[in-house]
Amino acid sequence: MPSSPSLATGPAPASPPRAVRDRRADLIVVLVALALAVWVTSGLWRDPNVRTITVNSSDQALFEWLLAFGGHAVTHGENPLFTYLINVPDGVNLAVNTSITVYAVVFAPLTYLIGAPATFLVILTLNLFATALAWYWLLSRHLVRSRLAAGVGGLFIAYSPGMVSHANAHLNWTAGWLVPLLIWRLFALRRPGHWLRDGVILGLLVAVAFSIAAEGLFFTALALGIFVAVWALHPARRAEARAALPDFLRGLAVTAVVAGVLLSYPLWLHFAGPQRFHGTGFDPVIHSEDIAAFAAFPRRSLAGEVGLGTSLAPNPTEENSFFGIGLLVLTVVCFVALWRRADPGRRATLWALGILALVFTVLSFGPVAKLDGRRTDLPMPFDLLGQLPVVNAALPARLALVVAPVIGVLLAYTVDQLRAAPPRHRSTELAWALGFAVALLPLLPTPLLTHEREPIPQFITSGTWRQYVSPDGVLTPVPLTVDIYPDGQRWQAYALSHRQGEFAIPGGFFLGPGGPDGRGRIGPVPRTLSALMDQAGRTGLVPIITDGTIRDVQSDLRHWRIETVVLADEVHGAKFGVDEDAVRRTATALFGDPQRVDDVWLWRIPLADR
């Protein structure tokens, strides 16, 4: 006679308390988020001081310099928002550049301890990790009941194609952890009786966000403004919005005052300070999102690895949408399923999310729509809005980054609703699981491409340079420093972070005045010396040198006050290889025979020429 099932199997184990299950879920999300952050940046972790991001080594060098300079400026009592160490003699207004001042100050001890390249990698990895955790926290504590739902939404947003694309060296755009905190504190302003404290907290957060990612803060503010307006005007929410309006407006006023006081000097520099400019040095037509890009797959993903990636972005760091057709279909299905079951209050939220996604999608198309790489004659709303102040400094393609959090929230809402619904037919559950898998698995990120970059010369690392550059003197590498030749700022970053002292350089990688119609440009306006060295480095041919050329070069040397010219044995070219021999022969034709000092060729410039 068979045993009784209850005796054979024993009593069913009791399910763990909800608090224990929630803590376990939190830990799993933390571990998965950390693993993905390290996975994406794993190429750099092999040797942070040697390896660089293949598709964007120039931006990596810039952010390393910003970390070294910002920490040095604060510890030495210098202005962290304006410098004469680059772009001699005019200097650079860092308030209109991406100065990441908060990061530079907070991580200054780490920069001095392990160097700017390793600190850059730590921040990049933490940005991705913190973005996942911040979104998970906002979703799980305020928007959905299911930890699984919050995990799906938070992890998707943090490792969405746009975020992984900007992980190619953009410390500002990968600081996505700021967005859920701004959302949380903005909606906290509705609380009655707490408008003063909540306004102060939001004002402080706005100041921090401005100093890390000003363009991202602008997009967030614009997105939240649209969402709140649409949500509050919905018939189901009007009464609630009207009741909360007085406290909300008081809190916003406090926010404006606090942020305005803290940002008064940076804002003055940005809009009225020296070396300011209007607009941007980038073409908004080129840097706009292709309509087909929304259904395309990103290069750094499983789909991209099997050959489904495209070249619809202007460069690999600007794949701002690239959701894939599967995710677009799933998003529409999720929206419809949520709408059908939603009460009027939830429909107000869904309506606001839908309008928000539509507005930012259309704006991301830029002044003129493109389809599969071909420009159309169809004008877009950005053609009008792009003429407005502040908006004219934004790249329209990046507006598509706002769509990813909308999709993430919809995915979280859907999973939450599926978890809370009564048991369904097994085929229905399987269909949903298959839909999520087909949509999300192809978008799983793959590691960033990296390679070894040319080492910083011993001439710099040993401090020998101090014997050839007077205090506050000007040294220049050749080719001269610009975005495609970042060595000058890499050398400066090493000297500053290793407490060797300061030397100034002409040129540099920055945004400054000098573009058409008073707009900005990347780097300084070219002069004869920089053009000659660039030509030699690119082509491998020595330019024709005439008496007029010599006079122009001597004028450049006096303008820049250069006292030492240095050529490394290996020059880092961010976009192409550099012919060092052609550069050396060109410099010899201009300055005479060089000295060999440590591992560099060196020319001393006579006082009369500078």
Automatic annotation (TrEMBL):
Q: Which residues cross the membrane?
A: 27-45, 94-114, 120-139, 146-164, 170-188, 195-212, 218-236, 248-268, 321-338, 350-369, 389-415, 427-444
Q: Name one Pfam family in it.
A: DUF6311
Swiss-Prot/TrEMBL keywords: Membrane, Transmembrane, Transmembrane helix
Q: Does the keyword Transmembrane apply?
A: yes
Tell me the domain of life: Bacteria
Q: Does the keyword Aminoacyl-tRNA synthetase apply?
A: no
> Residue limits of the DUF6311 domain?
80-384
- Listed name of the protein: DUF2079 domain-containing protein
